[in-house]
Amino acid sequence: MAKKFLRALALLIVPFTASLLIRIIYMTSKKNFHGPSSISDEPAIFACWHGELLMLPFLYLRYRKTPHVKALISSHFDGMLISKTINYFGIDTISGSTNRNATRVLMQGIKALKEGYDIGITPDGPKGPRHDVADGIVAMAQKAKVKIVLVEIKPTKFWQFNSWDKFRIPKPFGTLNYYSTQPIDVASMDMQEAKNFIKKGLLKHEL
Prior knowledge:
alpha/beta, Cobalt-precorrin-4 Transmethylase, domain 1, 7-stranded mixed beta sheet, 9 strands, two-stranded antiparallel sheet
């Protein structure tokens, strides 16, 4: 009973507080955007590593002034916290992952893309291995006939968790380096080729 109460309290307090802290970090940081100034209005999949996802909403909102996106988020409790946090940035969610409830999540993602939504995904989430691209992002892009925008977020100052994804929280008053690509097409690639291509693109600026 106590655990249930504490979780309910956390879901009430943590997401709002986290959304404020994320905004403060962004506002107090210098921003460098390396990538196209605009992209096609066609629905796309925005992909970044799980450990870099914290500041992703701002890159998305740079390209989409009015958010129309659903992010694939784990159905675990930490995923619920993330989901409620990004809701404050106008980002909707699909609960689950391409490892857990894979078929249902894949179908929901394809349906959303065909309805005109963008999709946000961490190809190595929700449990890793770190920097290992799962099949889901490729299957979704190919079946929905959409392209993928690869995003890297490299802060100059950050706290790093000792977790599987080496999750990074940028420190205020540093520099946020955003790297993004033009939408890439994996339609003609086989599964392994596409996964290798995505991995290479997302590691291009890794230290």
